[in-house]
Amino acid sequence: MLDKTLELTLEGRIRKDILVAAKQAGKVGAHIAPSLSLVEICSAIFENFDESRDVFVLSKAHGALGYYATMHQVGMITDEQFNSFEINGGEFPGQPSRSANNHVDYSSGSLGMGLSYAAGRAWGDAGAGVYVVLGDGELDEGSNWEAASVISAKKLKNICAIVDCNGLQSDGKCEDILQKDLKRIWEAHGWNTIVCDGHEAKEISRIIKDINSDKPTVILAQTVKGKGVSFMENNNEWHHHELNEEQYLQAISEIEENYGLR
């Protein structure tokens, strides 16, 4: 096992933050696995993010803890703010709540609404880069496809949507609930569609930087739900759960082992 004094990579620090905050939430629990799957997506977005101009929309509200942890690790929010997760009166509840104080642009929770909001922001300000993160299960909501059609028709090329394709939603496997060929559907709606490994932050960042299309762009990021913790990976029991002490220590140990500087 790696020396615990070694600094973790950014993705390791974000994952460790997720676990620490989830443990502190106690019996309230947290959406741990859906947050772990989008770590590299969030870190790539915020590498390219201009706080004075750009907009971030987490439509996949169940990944909120990954969003908060990323902002914490890139210095957008303080330790005190991050540690208020799931505390009454805190700025960071279980699902994002818009506030001028916490860099959250969009209150999410009702799935399927974020892309519509992103469309309005992109349409209203062509100079802003609008990033929206969706879940593949969330795409069962028809409102997404109404928004996708409008965005394409209006050629809102300042939108970049990233889908966290971890193959699971709260009720089970996406393919068992509603089979969708996401690449063909997005292309049919007129989007520039790119498929990539959702756990390669550098690759996602490169794609974002290299976007050069007259169409809006969607990145289908292939991920693993619960990525980085063996007993959570592809295990839907961890969609929302509480961590006991033994589970917490094992999870932290695995993150330190897998994401330390080599």
User: What is the 3D form?
Assistant: globular
Oligomer: single chain
Q: Averaged pLDDT, please?
A: 94
Low-confidence parts lasting 5 or more residues at pLDDT below 50? 1-5
Strands, count: 7
Structural class of the helix and strand makeup? alpha/beta
Helix fraction, binned, reads: 25-40%
Strand content: 5-15%
Order of helices and strands: HHHEHHHEHEEEHHEHEH
The helix tally amounts to 11
**Rg, Cα atoms, Å:** 17 Å
**Terminal CA distance:** 11 Å
What composes the largest sheet? 5 strands, parallel
Spatial sequence of strands, sheet with the most strands: 1-2-3-7-6
Give your account of this protein's structure.
- With 262 residues, this protein is an alpha/beta fold.
- 38% of the residues lie in helices and 13% in strands.
- It has a five-stranded parallel sheet with strand order 1-2-3-7-6, with helices on both faces. The chain has a two-stranded antiparallel sheet with strand order 4-5.
- Helix 1 (10-24) crosses helix 4 (64-73), helix 1 runs antiparallel to helix 11 and helix 3 (39-47) packs across helix 10 (201-210).
- The longest helix has 15 residues, at 10-24.
- The N and C termini lie close together (11 Å).
- The model is unreliable at 1-5 (pLDDT under 50).
